[in-house]
Amino acid sequence: MRSFSLATLSAAAVAMSTAPAAAQRPAAAPDIAAIADRVFTAWNNTHGPGCAVGVSRGGVTLLERGYGMADIAGERPITPATILESGSVAKQFTATAVMLLVADGKLKLDDDARTYLPELKSYGRPITVRHLLTHTSGLREWSNLVAWQGWPRGTRLHTQSDVYKIITDQSALNYPVGDHYSYTNSGFLLTRTLIERVSGIDFETFTAQRIFKPLGLTHTSWRGDFTRVVPGLAQAYRRNGNEWRLDMPFDNIIGAGGLWTTVGDWLRWNEHLTNRTLGTAVVDSMTRQMRLTNGLEIAYALGLTVSKYRGTRQIAHSGSTAGYSTYLARFPELGNLSVAVLCNAAGAPATALTYGLVDALHPELARAAAADTVSLSLATVFPWRGIYEDGRWHTTSTLDTAGGVLRYNGAPLRALRNGMYQAGNQVLRLDVSANGAARTIRSVTSDGDSVVQTLRQADPWVPTAAELQALAGRYRSDDIGVTFTVRMANGMLVLSPRPGVESVLTPTYRDAFSSDGGAVWFVRGKGGAIREMHFGESRVWDFTTVRVP
After folding, report:
1. Considering the entire predicted model, what is its pTM?
2. Which of 54, 180, 259, 326 meets the CB 3.0–4.6 Å disulfide criterion with 340?
3. Exposed/middle/buried for 433, CB within 10 Å: 0-12, 13-18, 19+?
């Protein structure tokens, strides 16, 4: 096993107390290196990818350490100097660039984005710069759109001009501007172009001159050209069976992600935010949480989330691009504790690893109370058994009683004393309309909003060959410039946006299917003839195509 440390420990900086200081001796500094070794034990190896971790408190670096390999074939380990990719943690740097322009007096957060991006269509309510930075614009996610064109990320080179066009070509939004929170990279990609137009210089140059260089982030730069050779860059990996395969982000899309950096630079960045080095107005605006049009305050601010972890304030963001997984957090109430985790393995639990360190350093933090459960009556819940469609993304969920065990999407359902139900970490409410005709499941999203799922039918739809054949045909979308082909193959419906690319449609309820994690459903017109085919995903709620001859 191999690990590499630049740990510097300070008893004054890390001493913790759970009782009044006068009542006990000064606490000894915890062995933070040993703590990190325990938390990252699964990644402490010489034959697979791993993580770099950094911890600081009050501006004092307590630990910078590496686990696992930056390059498996080259036998190069991860060290604190290893450069990894940020994923969406990069969004706070793009938001900072906007706030610097605000401080310069060149724009306002509540300006109509079309002032700077006239190619963006008008959707009734104006999309403001603030909407772009808070995932409340309603814009569709660009990566879903190019995937539906038949070119998902990694299959061809996508550029800023490509994604800018497909985003601004959309004739509709997911929802009215400002009504909901729906995570999408599209807003931040439009913001990159906005920054360039307002500042008059290239996005990478602007952020280097105004952020990275002044703050001493000497190992931080954008992946504006993925072919650039970067000394010390870790390869990214994804597990395939019993072996690791390379999984690198081969595109030049930056602003929403695509930042190369080190844990040391991230710790310095968090300290600059704490100290408001770039100006109080700039930094404080970044943590001002967004309000939806209904008044609901969500956790998302400007490229950052503001929430509670075990009762203490947390300002953080997670990231994931190709085989990179990351998390950057600071905890102002814990002596300005900062934790940076950058991993080069797809699915590496960077968030959980961060919390593992926080838990070990602060065992006094409140634990979540156990759910107050009561006995569950299958007879009571049985009428809700079936296939449900959610009212936002149109994806399906299943409430199943097979084998006498009640499960929601495979997770056992527990009854709570307050009349609600819990499946995994999700709390649900089962409702029935006054006339008893409609049964629904209501769940609460992470931003405090709610999603209603409606029972469509008790058992999965088993269509006949004739029923499937009636759905076959050609369906056109001008928004992405594609005519889809739907045809029968081996008793199943197959969907194709272009030759050589196909997806199998799995029946759910009548005229509806699941495919590649999303939903596909068909809409009939007068007389029952099929008129439209729709797509639904968590980041593109209702994408319409029209049947053509």
Report:
1. 0.91
2. 54
3. exposed
